[in-house]
Hints:
Domain Helicase C-terminal: 428-602
Largest sheet: 8 strands, parallel
Mean pLDDT: 71
EC number: 3.6.4.13
Shape: globular
GO molecular function, one term: hydrolase activity
Number of strands: 16
InterPro entries: DEAD/DEAH_box_helicase_dom, DEAD/DEAH_RhlB, Helicase_ATP-bd, Helicase_C-like, P-loop_NTPase
Bound molecules: adenosine-5'-triphosphate
Protein name: ATP-dependent RNA helicase
Amino acid sequence: MSEASPNQKRRRGRGKRGGRKNKKRHLNDEATPTTSWSALERDWFAGSSASSDDKIPDPLTETDVTDNGEGSTRSSESMDTLEHLRHLWVNFCKKRQRPGKQSQEWQPRPIQLQAWSILMPPNDASSSKRTQTCNMIGLSPTASGKTLAFGAPMVIGANLYTMKKQPGSTTTIIYGIVLVPTRELALQVAKELEAMVSSLPQNTKTSGSSSIRVLACCGGGSQSTQDHIDILKTKGGQHLISATPGRLADIMEKLGRQQQDKEIIIRPRYLVMDECDRLAGNVDLAQQVTAILNACMSPDASLAFFSATYPQKVQETWKEWMQLSSKRCAMIRVDAVSMESNNNNKHNRKMQKMESDNNQQSQNDDAAKVPAKEGAEDKEEPADDSQEDDGTKKQTTKDAVKNDFLSRIPAYLVQTLHVCSEHKKPKKLITTLDRIRKEEQASQYHRQKRLGVVFFGRIKTLQYMSNFLKKQPSYNKNYACLELHSQLPQHMRNKNMQTFQSGRVTLLLATDIAARGLHVSNIGFVINYDFPGNLEQYVHRCGRAGRDHDPDAGRLPPTIYSFFTRSLAPMAPDVVSLLEACKAWVDPNLLALVNDDGKEARSKNKPKHDQDGGKPASREDKAGANEVDEEQFSDEDAFPELSAQKIVLKRASNVSDASSSSGDDSD
Ligand SMILES: Nc1ncnc2c1ncn2[C@@H]1O[C@H](COP(=O)(O)OP(=O)(O)OP(=O)(O)O)[C@@H](O)[C@H]1O
């Protein structure tokens, strides 16, 4: 364990003063031979909880933890709770175990140990007060198991609560709520919660898990708000809800108007916000979350915020939300990237200018996409980070980077970023895809094509490139793709996701709707066709690849390909810092952009004519013509069909350039 931070020391000291005993219950190793319970025994509940008379600290009090999961913040345990967790863990592991894999590989992850120690319901089975004493903020890398971290306490809490309930009661109680920014994620989290519910012990005093129900509540599908209310009413029991904020706010509003006989009680013990920086960073979503919290916050409820990133800009909103609860809050941070920043004034000036430009642009975009009040249920995050309502597009000043939390990008991901001119991106996409497929063919471990996601900033560009790929002679063989963005009807979004997950089509062209939370196990590569507007989004996009990567399987490493254009030069220093922090290869042309706005790059490479012939079609093209061409592939020799696309390529450039004010994803 690394040396304890001052906050940690303070917290430990406080716990001792609180006078709680630091008891440990030993788990039955024999019953669980294949899981690392020793780690649980060592770390779990090893800390001290705050005494009830402790002053409520600043909600953002920090506890740093290292990879071994130490630094727990509370001591409390119960045979019931542990027993439940043991069952859930073993059964859940069994379900998720891939053939040929040893169950020993499933060890509780640091964020799970921490979340369980903080959020698990207290232990005394006879206690009528089954409330946990702490809120938490859990920051941990992508694919680090955050869903199980917040899901297990919620599911176990609901089961323990069920055991105490009067038999025969038909009232529906909403026991836990998970809010997420997209519909796809709401459906996925609901599935995970269902898997956890079905992993609970079945031989408890009551009917075990049978009366805990999980419901995904989001718009766009065949179920209306009233349908969701009817499902809740007719089923009864404890409900765990995974929802987009818009739909849940609508349900609550409607219930408030309809309900006379209290058939449905919304008094959640757990209010979890997954991808919480996204929920807080978008004005519409944040308003809906605030409304939900105000409506159903109770002294019993625990708040839990989770994400892989935590930008400064959302801190105030998080604080406000946390302050709705009287409980203290622990912030758990696992594996942050530390980025050295070497400020220079010129860079800062450029950043300030860029931000003010972006704010202006963002306000313009907002004006075009203010959603109608009606149908608010369907609102989700905007697909393009650059369209955020808070004017945070490309908000990457050095100071922000220094204070933001970015979780480590998993080391097994190879990051390949090339500086590239805008008008060459279509061609570069083709060459990159061809290269990926060639590498797969050459590898003995890839009998099937790997799945890949190509991210776009704008729906128009996405659609344009989808058509562009369709026009390629070898479309079916090499470039067959699906689309995922907010202008597609939900049934198409679901269908495309299913087809992609099944591997029938291996390429998904997506906006940032697919950037967060989605777990598709065999995504082998991500291509940032449009580099995201900020590093948080980059971290989340990267996290879609290689989520169940097995380093010993001999397969190609999951790889992130990013096309970085000259117009993003003000972001370059931060991107270099991030790549260096990840020990990734840094394109010399990117360094040149950092060092002297690309002058160095220009001098090294004699100015050349636009390779597509003729004059550059736009200002961007002009810059690109002078810029080092990153392409190490000899595109036109290798892919003669591209020569025929010259005019199309220029139009593609125009689409990317001109689309900033139209065709935005207003979901
Ligand atoms: N302790 C564990 N050991 C191994 N795999 C785990 C463990 N816990 C969860 N997993 C698996 O890891 C995968 C990723 O988990 P999950 O989707 O919860 O990640 P996440 O941290 O929420 O990622 P993101 O930030 O991208 O949303 C899932 O398939 C999950 O079943």
